[in-house]
Design brief:
The structure is a homodimer.
Chain A: E1 2-8, E2 13-19, E3 25-29, H1 36-45, E4 49-54, H2 66-73, E5 76-80, E6 90-92, E7 97-100, E8 103-109, E9 118-122, E10 125-129, E11 132-133, E12 136-137, H3 147-158, E13 166-169, E14 179-180, H4 181-187, H5 197-204, H6 215-222
Parallel strand pairs in A: 3-4, 4-5, 5-6, 10-13
Antiparallel strand pairs in A: 1-2, 2-3, 7-8, 8-9, 9-10, 11-12, 13-14
């Protein structure tokens, strides 16, 4: 599997273009509306056929480009069933498997940042969205977030993956691009080093973060898959 | 060889942390002064011993963190001999080889953006600095830059590498993180698709770019290896 990490400077979002080298079947994880032309150009130049547009969750900080990309590629939009999405083509549940060329994409339901977070597992890599970030994790204070759920998702599902699994997050705010499960188990500042749920909750309950600037347009925009005119 | 790409948001600079997994010997390519603490933390967490601080050239847009990192790690600073650096430990020439654990780093002299550009070749990856960027290349209008030299460096040295060689550039301004020699030969907008030197020069001579904001502090700062108090 080939992986290209793409970055949106305005929202600090990582998009991932992944493809099976043998068949050129591709998936794009967490596209950004403003980057659709860039992504399409890259897809064309690489000679890829996009089969899936994978969303890790209903984002609150940016609008997905999945809808516009679907129109150009005929790919299917994939998101967890808890999202309540009426525009997605495939609504996933824990353990679902998507075929991409000769590879398999396995879906883990990793809620806690929202109620509809998915981690996509592909050949030793975990695309964790905003559940597990590098030395960090997604906030839990809106969109049906939950400290308990996120603690369970990270410690019981993600931290039990093979230690060498590469973690590709949905964002980073310090310029880091990837990590591993071993590193996050050891060094994650909010949940690593065997922190208890109580310790984790105390950290999360005291973050005092402002609401994302775009939440009031991003969430409804994402529930339309980024097709804003529809 | 393990590779971590790190990004500085203020100057759009990519720093690379690379290491030999067997021996944990590491090199850091193109550090940024403001990111030294981040990089040191990462080096410590990963249990690495930094042997080299590799500069692809004397930068005009940011100040290197190599000097401060040398003080903390005892690593050697490496740059091309044309740089005129009096603070580096190793001045390189075309074809030099540096040992990193069980791996080899091969130096290509790829001038044209400046007169002292090096590309570092490591196990199927080319760290091209500002010589070859993704679909783009470094400017040629100061620091002894030269259209002819850059055209020769890219077409005769970089484009003759194996097509699958991964290109890790010194910057990107669109959120792209890596490319390949095959892609740049085909799609580089300034020099790909068999452009002639005349076509390339016409493009380069009409860029009309402003001077980098920091050039007057960056170049002298880099000639001190970022040790600004010395």
């Amino acid at each position: 599997m080939k992986i290209r990490q793409l970055f949106d400077y305005d929202t600090w979002t990582y998009t991932y273009l992944i493809w099976d080298e043998a068949t050129k079947e591709a998936a794009v994880i967490d596209t950004v509306l403003e980057q659709v032309e860039r992504d399409l150009q890259h897809i064309t130049e690489l000679g890829l056929t996009v089969k899936y547009l994978l969303e890790t969750h209903v984002h609150a900080d940016h609008i997905t480009g999945a809808g516009p990309l679907r129109k150009k590629t005929s790919a299917q939009i994939v998101i967890h069933k808890n999202s309540g999405s009426e525009c997605a083509d495939i609504l996933t549940s824990e353990g679902d498997v998507l075929k991409l060329g000769e590879q398999e994409i396995r879906v883990l339901h990793t809620p806690g940042h929202t109620d509809n977070d998915s981690t996509y597992l592909i050949e030793g890599a975990a695309f964790t969205g905003d559940a597990l970030l590098i030395r960090d994790c997604g906030r839990t204070d809106f969109q049906l977030g939950s400290n308990e759920a996120l603690y369970h998702s990270i410690t019981q599902k993600l931290f039990t993956l093979p230690e060498s699994t590469i973690v590709f997050p949905g964002h980073d705010y310090r310029g880091l691009s990837q990590s591993t499960i071993a590193e996050e188990r050891a060094f994650n500042t909010r949940i690593g080093n065997d922190k208890s749920l109580e310790e984790f909750s105390q950290i999360m309950d005291n973050l005092n973060l402002p609401n994302p600037k775009r939440i009031h347009i991003a969430v409804p925009g994402n529930l339309k898959c980024g097709d804003l005119e529809s």
